[in-house]
Design a protein that fits this description.
It catalyses: L-histidine = trans-urocanate + NH4(+). With 581 residues, this protein is α+β, with helices and mostly antiparallel strands. The protein has helices at residues 24-37, 70-73, 113-120, 130-149, 173-184, 194-208, 217-228, 247-257, 273-279, 291-296, 300-330, 340-344, 349-362, 370-374, 385-388, 390-412, 437-465, 467-470, 487-503, 525-555, 564-574, and strands at residues 2-8, 11-17, 53-57, 63-64, 79-84, 103-106, 125-128, 188-191, 232-233, 236-238, 262-265, 269-272, 420-422, 427-429.
């Protein structure tokens, strides 16, 4: 089966094509159909048949004849765009590419997790600070002296891993580095998305900018030029054991920069790396002694994905408080459990912050809730744990995220090469900064912590759907039986929570000896990072289900209104999802 990635109105859609004899017109219609399916209002269309469009390649922007077959006109896995008649053709194929040019100056010491995510989104281009340039030059001078004096130093004039005692003659030092990159480009699996490839590339640049890697300023500037042109190598997501660094994915990154393998850019789509570089006026990097090792030795795959995970976790943790507060209103809960004195005597920072958010959202004195007033004098004494204990459960999630973010911030501004080049001492020192145990353990902890937001949310969804607990119609639908309401939406939430329980098993508790027992303890941090992102995605989906259910529940309490902030949340949801009583 053939597969194509199709761009429709700012969204990328994966479209399988069962037969090569299907036409380009069929591919366009199928992409539009999938686009409409993902939109609450069908994208403004009533049927696929009424949509008029044309199709063009992303690579070269050439228009395609709708009557041609896909096997004649396209290569498998090619990127194409469907342009709806009347729309403006997209000038660029990274969805969030900015119109203006904004730069962020990297020095290897001050990058934040949010900065890195923004670099992944294409919001900034990169330049080095003058101080970073000076440090890179000084570091390179040490390497040039080692080569000139033919000193035996690991990775510069010797082989790697088990071959560390094999001395390489000066005439083959450049070949050594290229062979290293080629042999280590052994990853498998789907390629990283453009956004994640940009994050990985940006983070490696930041580490090299510290001046402890021995890369030349000329080569580093070439790497920066590739980033700024959005020339992104093909980087499979699997293959790293997290020590010695993320060798396989970083080798694929380096391979593309040398003009070998595949590369993607907004204007070219996927093509041979040398042609993509050439199309942007760039030359392939020619690796000098130590530069291959400088490009591939470090924890940047784990850490770049970890930065995305921690930023998404921060966002969903804040949203979880809002969603839970809305559910509490629908279930006619009390705000007494959020009293300041309760949390002052157990002063965990996250717990206090969550309680404050709940008070801000539910405080009837500042923005009265008619729903709260309707049951003020009821005989209920206290709520179920899933509502009453939100500050304690959500709170530790917030503290976990803060802990992990601190580790990630340190890691993205750390030198993780081996050997390290210390210009002030005019020497290189072998160590173990490439070991990914820090980010691996932190991301396993993040997955365990953030999962609890989904676990408690799923129980609140149950309370919303169960008429014996909610005093609302079963599954939040008026004509039960004829309509099933949120019955299966709750099942989906339960399935995601169950899947998360398996994903939360820490991958960093495992280690397998590699490289003929030279690298005899590894972190398995690549899987820690990837599964943390999967856990967070599931948490986002479960909380989205709860949000929809809570908004549905409010419909049965009308004309009563909740607090002003929560009414704003309700209005936002209803702007994209209509009421379905």
């Amino acid at each position: 089966m053939l597969r194509y990635t199709v761009h429709v109105r700012g969204e990328w859609l994966a479209v399988p094509c069962p037969h090569g004899t299907n036409t380009i017109g069929w591919l366009g219609k199928e992409a539009v159909r999938r686009y409409m399916k993902n939109k609450p209002d069908n994208g403004g269309f009533t049927s696929v048949e009424e949509v008029k469009f044309f199709v063009r390649r992303c690579k070269g922007l050439g228009l395609l004849d709708l009557d041609d077959t896909v096997e004649d006109a396209l290569e498998d896995n090619e990127f194409v765009e469907v342009v709806i008649e009347g729309d403006i053709m997209s000038p660029d194929f990274i969805p969030s590419q900015p119109e203006g040019v904004h730069y962020i100056s990297l020095d290897g010491n001050s990058l934040t997790t949010q900065d890195l995510v923004n670099l992944g989104k294409g919001l900034y281009k990169i330049k080095l600070t003058p101080e970073a340039e000076a440090k890179v030059k000084q570091s390179r001078e040490v390497i040039e002296r080692i080569v000139k004096e033919q000193t035996v130093v690991y990775g510069i004039t010797t082989g790697f891993g088990k071959f560390a005692r094999t001395v390489i003659p000066n005439s083959k030092l450049m070949e050594l580095q290229m062979n290293l990159v080629r042999s280590h480009s052994a990853g498998v699996g789907k390629p990283l998305t453009p956004e994640r490839s940009r994050m990985l590339l940006a983070l490696r640049i930041n580490v090299l900018a510290k001046g402890y890697s021995g890369i030349s300023l000329e080569t580093l500037q070439q790497v920066i030029e590739a980033f700024n042109a959005s020339c992104l190598p093909y980087i499979p997501e699997k293959g790293t054991v997290g020590a010695s660094g993320d060798l396989a994915p970083l080798s694929h990154l380096a391979l593309g920069l040398t003009g070998e393998g595949k590369m993607w850019s907004p204007k070219s789509g996927w093509a041979d790396a040398k042609y993509v570089l050439e199309a942007h006026g760039l030359k392939p990097i020619i690796l000098k002694p130590k530069e291959g090792l400088a490009l591939i030795n470090g924890t940047q795959m784990i850490t770049s994905l970890g930065c995305e995970a921690v930023e998404r976790a921060s966002a969903i943790a804040r949203q979880a408080d809002i969603v839970a507060a809305l559910t509490l209103e629908v279930l006619k809960g009390t705000t007494k459990a959020f009293d300041t004195d309760i949390h002052a005597v157990r002063p965990h920072r996250g717990q206090a912050e969550v309680a404050f958010r709940f008070r801000s959202l539910l405080d009837s004195d500042h923005h009265p809730s008619e729903i709260a007033e309707s049951h003020r004098f009821c005989d209920r004494v206290q709520d179920a744990y899933t509502m009453r204990c939100c500050p304690q459960v959500h709170g530790v999630v917030n503290d976990t995220i803060a802990f992990v973010k601190d580790i990630m911030t340190t890691e993205i501004n750390s030198a993780t090469d081996n050997p390290m080049v210390f210009a002030e001492r005019a020497e290189t020192i072998s160590g173990g900064n490439f070991h990914g145990e820090y980010p691996a353990k932190a991301l396993d902890y993040l997955a365990i912590g953030v999962h609890e937001l989904a676990a408690i949310s799923e129980r609140r969804i149950e309370r919303l759907c169960n008429p014996s607990l909610s005093e609302l119609p079963a599954f939040l639908v008026t004509e039960g039986g004829l309509n099933s309401g949120f019955m299966i939406a709750h099942c989906t939430a339960a399935a995601l929570v169950s899947e998360n329980k398996a994903l939360c098993h820490p991958s960093s508790v495992d280690s397998l000896s590699t490289s003929a027992a030279t690298e005899d303890h590894v972190s398995m941090g690549g899987w820690s990072a990837r599964k943390a992102l999967r856990v967070i995605e599931h948490v986002e989906q479960v909380l989205a289900i709860e949000l929809l259910a809570a908004c549905q529940g409010i419909e049965f309490l009308r004309p009563l209104r909740t607090t002003t902030p929560l009414e704003k949340v309700y209005d936002l949801v209803r702007s994209v999802v209509r009421c379905g009583k």
